[in-house]
Write a structure and sequence with these properties.
The protein is mainly alpha-helical. The radius of gyration is 21 Å and the shape is globular. The longest helix has about 35 residues. The protein is built from 16 helices and no strands. Helices cover about 80% and strands about 0% of the residues.
Amino acid sequence: MRLITRDRSFYRSLVALAVPVALQNLITFAVSFADNLMVGSLGDAAVSGVYMGSQIQTLLQMFSGGIEGAILVLASQYWGKKDIRSIKRIIAIGLQFSLMFGILLTTVCLVFPSQILSLFTADAAVIADGIVYLRIVCLSYVFFCVTQALISSMRSVEVARIGMGVSAISLVFNILLNYLLIFGHFGFPALGIAGAAIATLISRIVETLVMVLYVAKADKKLSLRFSDLLVVDKLLQKDFIRYGLPIIGGNLVWSVNMMVNSMILGRYSASVITAASVANTMNSLAYVTMNGLSAAVGIITGKTVGAGQTEKMKEYAYTVQILFFSLGLVTGGIVALLKNPFISLYTGITSEAALYSRQFITVLSVTIIGTCYQAAGLFGLVKSGGDISFVFKNDTIFVFLVVLPSAIIASYLGAAPWVVFACLKCDQILKCFVAVVKINRFDWMKNLTRTATE
């Protein structure tokens, strides 16, 4: 068995799926980055307020991502069997769960915005700005849930370009509306942070409309109809809950991790919070290509395992490990080289915030190496291959027994902010030791589909 596969179809599929997903992620990043840069000109308190107000979006993305992951893992395996009927029913189940959570989270944010934000920071100015942002942007949550579930559904049957197109349209709307509503150009009112939130809301609505029209009118692989989304299949619903809960649970664990990260760093000054926002934006940019490739690996893995081609999957797994470790080394070097030029784009932040940003990004240049290898291995191979509960258990152990305790202890001992930040990112390296053992045992390849008689 070769360490590097010579199967050209693997590389063709990898590129064909990864490029649209990576570009979609890049466009999504550009939307967030545009918000950061434009709001950044309003000062540290504004940047920090939007950052804190966005933490609930992180929770939404993690839960929605869990639903998307469940759709992707199950539907891609059924796609390997060409079972369209089951794929449609899995999509319907995922959409129903996603909508329920989006409505619930919107309601909570509308009723308790100040209480939510006070969990992350005690800075009154940051909370005040965060409330303005959160009350408006939470209205976009339901639209976000629908769009992401439908994009994931299309990816599961190897249609990845529509997600890129939807994100490109969203980018244009978001940047244009930011320009008009944050600063008040061409006769529009200068709304500041509220303008950024309104721009996001309108962009999310446009995304949903485009995606729904595509699925209803243009897609030929699934030919989804509204009536398909109302069908209740008890057996597949049971499977979705059984295999989806560990994915959702893992994402919720990760969202708790991210929110507690914000709470720990939120006890420092606004400069540290701003630096965390800058560093995490840089991390998102560095993650774009890796995430696209990892998502492509997940689709190929699900399809291959679903088709019962285990020996071919082993060869693919060796190739993936070598590719992503190499990608991690290259990405880490690029992050280190671009650190100062990237920070210089934030013209409105203080010199203290810029100093902390440099320290945080230096930490990221090391941890991103581990992120590339273990994330692709554990999520692209192990989870998509069918061993879903392992990833959930692994994340839970690292978050609650390693990452958060070490960061909390470091902060209470008065450690420098960069030390605390390093503790919050240490799992990205430590998980690699687990990943290399788990992947090469090959006990994660599990066919989750049902037979026609079942």
